[in-house]
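Tokens in:
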């Protein structure tokens, strides 16, 4: 089944967690309430989310060369989807590959997310070798792999832990493998940053968010989602050993970088 044919059952639910004034102390968390409206939320609030997911199987075709050994001793491409949420990236990949060609390990720290991801993936891709794991990506050991996806996840880790996670990814990737890192960023220049942030809120308004929802989400994410600049991302990728890393996508303050091992 292709991604476009996949029906995620929560599609009909809409993102309404911030429609009442929030206590300043309310922090964003990936709980059942967020899970219920997640597909709607991420598509309406992340510019380019669909385009980035659609490119993942195209990148995988070029860079995943069946270098790993699967459960039945056959050659497979092993892909990690780190911070998988409901498995959007995993589904984008599974939808474009034969079941026997891929082994996907989808990891998320939120049990509410992994419970729902397990249901959705088994409903839609039961033949595929997909393991959904509830874990902190800072703690898991990674097996040798061909591709790692960090789609809007690194930004939720404490800044001090980001290098160690990227070092672990670099070590696990086979020669020729890739990391696809997608993040919300901020611009170093304050004026540019203000323009990007304002146009980002315009993007959300155009997608039906109210002023209260926009400001509620902004307050809830304060100190939870901590952005870096694009330069900081490239510097960190170089620091952990990637010699080549390229910004292949940018839409307002959201960027995606591919790093080649
Ligand atoms: C997608 N990639 O749809 N370990 C594991 N997971 C974590 C950690 C951690 N330490 N911290 C946060 N998460 C997805 C979208 S969402 C992006 C990713 C967003 C998880 C968290 O539970 C959540 O599910 C995910 O990272 C971030 O392609 O909501 O803006």
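Residues out:
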């Amino acid at each position: 089944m292709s991604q476009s044919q996949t029906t995620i059952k929560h599609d009909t639910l809409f993102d309404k967690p911030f429609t009442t004034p929030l206590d300043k102390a309310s922090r964003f968390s990936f709980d059942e309430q967020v899970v219920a409206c997640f597909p709607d939320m991420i598509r309406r609030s992340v510019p380019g989310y669909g385009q980035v997911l659609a490119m993942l199987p195209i990148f995988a075709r070029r860079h995943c060369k069946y270098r790993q050994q699967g459960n039945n001793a056959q050659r497979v491409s092993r892909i990690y989807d780190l911070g998988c949420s409901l498995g959007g990236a995993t589904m984008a990949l599974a939808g474009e590959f034969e079941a026997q060609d891929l082994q996907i390990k989808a990891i998320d720290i939120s049990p509410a997310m992994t419970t729902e991801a397990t249901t959705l993936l088994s409903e839609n891709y039961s033949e595929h070798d997909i393991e959904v794991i509830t874990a902190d990506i800072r703690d898991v050991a990674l097996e040798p792999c061909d591709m790692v996806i960090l789609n809007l996840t690194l930004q939720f880790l404490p800044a001090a832990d980001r290098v160690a996670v990227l070092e672990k990814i670099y070590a696990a990737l086979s020669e020729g493998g890739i990391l696809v890192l997608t993040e919300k960023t901020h611009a170093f220049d304050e004026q540019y940053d203000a323009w990007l942030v304002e146009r980002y809120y315009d993007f959300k308004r155009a997608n039906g968010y109210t002023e209260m929802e926009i400001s509620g989400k902004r307050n809830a994410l304060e100190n939870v989602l901590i952005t870096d600049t694009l330069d900081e991302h490239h510097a960190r990728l170089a620091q952990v050993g990637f010699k080549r890393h390229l910004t292949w996508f940018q839409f307002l303050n959201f960027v995606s970088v591919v790093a080649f091992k």
